[in-house]
Amino acid sequence: MKIDYTSYKDVKLKGKKVLIRVDINSNIDMEKMEIRDSPRIRALAPALNDYFKKSAVIILAHQSRPGDPDFTDMSLHAKEIEKEIGRPVKFVKDIFGAEAIKAIKELKPGEVLVLDNVRKFEGEMKNYKNFSDAEATELVQKLFPLVDYVIVDAFGAAHRAHASIVGWPKMLAGPITDEELGVLKKIIDVPDRPMAMLIGGAKAIDKFKAMKYNFESDKLDYALCSGLTAVLIFEALGKNMGEPNHKIIAKDLEENHTMIKETYEKFKERIILPVDLVIDDNGNRKIITIDEAEAYNMTTGDIGPQTVKKFIDIIMKCKTIIANGPPGIFEKEVFRESTNEIIDAMAEATKKNHALTVIGGGEMGAAASMAGKADEVSFISTAGGAMLELLSGHELPMIKALREKKF
Ligand code: 3PG
Ligand code: MG
Predict the structure, then answer these.
(1) How far apart are CA 96 and CA 93, in angstroms?
(2) What is the position in ligand 1's atom list of the atom closest to the CA of 156?
(3) Minimum-distance ligand to the CA of 26?
(4) Which of 67, 73, 177, 367 has minimal CB crowding within 10 Å?
């Protein structure tokens, strides 16, 4: 992968007015109206107190999607940033109207201003194939002339060709993109072998395709499949995993049945599937075999101890381990065990074997934080879907825009 952009480090930012498009989309407790955990805000904070400390910084970002319950304004995020950086952060409930323009014009070096949820602008979320259409939006036309530089650093949303991500006439890459690509580039180009990919959680077909691409480009040695990806494979091979499991993957299975079967046949020596699963037996873990899943007809929310052992044996043999999606529904106590054991094994592989261990996707990163192990793996990415697309060999729209609109 060729990284071809102008970085924020290549220009002088001191005394300048800088707009940064970041991804601080967060998990919000809507009853308490507070941000639950904000790894993306924590990742952003150090640069605000370092590289950007002497600039007038305008932060542009999104929260959730229109119509979703957590589609809020950005005032909570502004407060959270204030806590992280230890100095005042301004917020305007406006994106590019009179109030926002006034606040941007008055902003001085050393000050930070957060604009409102950019997805309130109806032109934001179109999938801009043609970046010049994004450039023509009111958002870009109004904001771009007001600042010296635009830094696009929304790595977690880099797979979205949205106006605020691909529309600026000139763009610089930011610190999070620099850091993430620094780690992920190694995995994409020449990973230390053996390499294992641990695939769990939702988005089964996307994860299956990322696995397929990495096998076909001969970079991957093992795929440790759990969660819905395992259900998808088992059902493609003719097993019935019970209705609660089946219904979630039914559409993807129908559309990709042959491809899944053929891919499995081709790489089956290296695709490790569960041999036991867990169901919730009135709050207790009941271990079942794969063949029993049909009769129990319940959500199989975790992998069983024999599977965990198989996975850990492979993790301890590998030099690169990349996890996307937890092996169990760890939010539920009864299904948490394997996720913690796998995270422990990744931490041990990092320490003992000097393996490069990377966790992507919000949930598994949160699980690592909950287990107090976030600092014991090599890297926790701020991206889930974007990382998956990158690992599937696609050039992300944000990276393409940074390349085409560099200085
Ligand atoms: C995310 O949290 O996955 C990113 O911010 C992208 O959000 P989206 O999936 O709603 O586009
Ligand atoms: Mg998401």
Answers:
(1) 10
(2) 4
(3) 1
(4) 67
Alpha carbon separation from 309 to 12, 86, 192, 304, 355 (Å, rounded): 52, 45, 23, 9, 18
Task: From 261, 321, 274, 264, select the one nearest 301 (Cα to Cα).
Answer: 274
Specify the ligand 1 atom closest to the Cα of 154. Answer: 5
What residues have CB less than 8 Å from 257, skipping those under 6 apart?
236
**Residue from 160, 176, 398 whose mutation best tests the ligand 1 pocket (most atoms within 8 A of CB):** 160
Q: Note if the pTM is more than 0.85.
A: yes
221-246 per-position pLDDT tens digit: 999 999 999 999 999 999 999 999 99
Answer yes or no: are the C-beta atoms of 20 and 58 closer than 8 Å. Answer: yes
> Could you tell me which residues come within 8 angstroms of residue 262 by beta carbon, excluding any fewer than 6 positions away?
none
Rounded mean pLDDT, 294-305: 98
Pocket lined around ligand 1, Cβ cut-off 6 Å: 23, 25, 65, 156-157, 160, 384-385
CA 4/CA 134 separation, integer angstroms: 21
Distance 387 CA to ligand 2 centre (A): 11
Please say whether the beta carbons of 8 and 351 come within 8 A: no
pLDDT at 36: 85
In angstroms, rounded to a whole number, what is the distance separating the alpha carbons of residues 166 and 382? Answer: 19
Q: Which amino acid is at 13?
A: L
Q: For a ligand 1 pocket test, name from 22, 25, 152, 180 the mutation site with the most ligand atoms within 8 angstroms of its C-beta.
A: 25
Residue-wise pLDDT for 313-335, tens only, equals 999 999 999 999 999 999 899 99
